[in-house]
Amino acid sequence: MPERMQPGVTGSTFSRRSLLRTGGGLVATTALLGAGAVFAGPASAAITAMPTSKRFDLTEPSYDEFRSKLLHESHHVMQGFAFDNQNVRIFIVNARNGGTGDDLCVTQVNFSGEIQGSMHLNNAGHGVSIGVEPVGTDSYIWMECDSNGPTGDGRGTALARFKFVNGGTPSVKKFLTGSDTITCATDPINKRIAVRRKENGKMTISVFSLASAAAGDFSTPLAHFPQPALSDKQVTFQGYTIYGQYLYTLDGEGHENPADINSYVTCIDMNTGKVKSRALTKAGKSLVYREPEGLGIYRSLAGETRLYMGFGSRSSIGNINRYANLFYKNVLID
């Protein structure tokens, strides 16, 4: 289930069960900077250390990357996704067929949406957002783990980092154990990682150097601020990513009727913690039961920087299969 957020409320609460469960398919776990860790700086204001950058014009048209592609787990809608810009790879997460709801699968696809490999991480969470860190020719996945409950409502209580090996068993290092509803996203251009988790009852964003995070150092955030209200109405949070000084979020719901589309992309200045712009997106509006699912950043081989939006779809309302679709925006402004 996505997160239902009331106006001015930055998260939703889930009960905690089995705080640090070790899911099937995990080996050699290591806890780094565990429960009780608090990032430097006040949660009520941003740390203004993000270098200035351009932002995406959310009012410009969107373009197709691919449509209607099945993932390794075909019966569950896509959730978060991320890019290995260095090795030109896309990774998409969704729930496992026949799993408990918090058992997740990471599928690697190419830019035509064809499956290149997959890995499973059981008892992980929901997969709202993930990150990728290239290390040479390898791709390391960052995602939530240690779900607080074995259902579709389960949310991660720690971050996992592991090398993607097609069909392999993840060898996981864990960070920020004991967190509440934690996820992450990566900026592959500026090599940063954003961590979104609940702190003092509010969803909070913290940004770090990706190299520092991989070394287990979360002591010096580049930004740290509560996620602002995205609208004066209730929204359904569906994903986020970062590029430069800006955080981008996606919210909205799935609809049978294209006329009912309510998916919005919001741009937030991480140096102020305030909304900079917000726009309705109708990318893929003809998809059957189109549902917004995830955001990601990629820079093409030609040097074009893109903000990608994910959407789940179906071939028909009654079909059990769920399809992945990616679209992007590519206009940057000051």
What does this structure look like?
With 334 residues, the protein is mainly β. It is globular and about 50 Å long. A hairpin with a 4-residue loop joins strand 5 (81-84) and strand 6. Strands 1-17-18-19-20 form a five-stranded antiparallel sheet, with no helix packed on it. The chain has a five-stranded mixed sheet with strand order 2-12-11-10-9, with no helix packed on it. Mean pLDDT is 90; it is low at 8-30 and 40-44. Helix content is 1%, strand content 43%. The chain is built from one helix and 24 strands. It starts with a strand and ends with a strand. The chain has one domain (3-333): Tachylectin-2, Chain A (5 Propeller), CATH 2.115.10.
Percentage beta strand: 35-45%
Rough outline: globular
Q: Count of DSSP helices?
A: 1
Q: How can the largest sheet be summarized?
A: 5 strands, antiparallel
Task: Please tell me how large the radius of gyration is.
Answer: 18 Å
Element string (H = helix, E = strand): EEEEEEEEEEEEEEEHEEEEEEEEE
Structural class: mainly beta
Averaging pLDDT over every residue, what do you get?
90
At the fold tier of CATH, the topology name is: Tachylectin-2, Chain A
| Residue runs with pLDDT of under 50 for 5 or more positions | 8-30, 40-44
- Work out the count of structural domains: 1
Number of strands: 24
Please give the alpha-carbon distance between the first and last residues. 36 Å
Reported CATH architecture: 5 Propeller
Helix content: under 10%
Widest beta sheet: strand line-up:
1-17-18-19-20
- CATH class group: Mainly Beta
Assembly context of the chains: single chain
Protein name: Teichoic acid biosynthesis protein C
InterPro entries: P68_RBP_TagC-like_beta-prop, TAT_signal
Domain P68 RBP/TagC-like beta-propeller: 77-326
Organism: Amycolatopsis thailandensis
